Amino acid sequence: MTKPQLVYTHRDWTEDASLENGNYYNRCCQCQQHFVGHKRRIICKTCSTQAKREWDALTPEQQTVQMEANVQRMAEFFRNR
Ligand SMILES: [Zn+2]
Predict the structure, then answer these.
(1) Ligand 1 centre and the CA of 67: distance in Å?
(2) How far is the CA of 26 from the centre of ligand 1 (A)?
């Protein structure tokens, strides 16, 4: 019996493959597509790369505004728990 060959896509975190728990099938919280990676990953490589590209395109001032908005959103989220 041979092991089925895993065919990776651009959404998969191939660098996680050698890690313990690095070959889990996950669903991306951004695009809802399946991807392979560490069991703790919540976002596929495609969405992560896009988010990083968008973040890097912001000025430091825009990044600060974005971070403060995120902190505010988290505070509201946990206040309602
Ligand atoms: Zn995704």
Answers:
(1) 21
(2) 10
CA–centroid distance, residue 1 to ligand 1 (Å): 33
* 6, part of any domain: no
**For residue 72, is it within any domain?**
yes
Q: Is the pLDDT assigned to residue 80 strictly greater than 90?
A: no
Residue 3 domain-assigned (yes or no)? no
The pTM of the whole model exceeds 0.85: no
pLDDT (0 to 100) of residue 9 = 95
Reduced 3-state DSSP string for 32-69: CCEEEECCCCCCCHHHHHHHHHHHHHCCHHHHHHHHHH
Domain of residue 18 covers 14-79
Rounded mean pLDDT of 50-58? 97
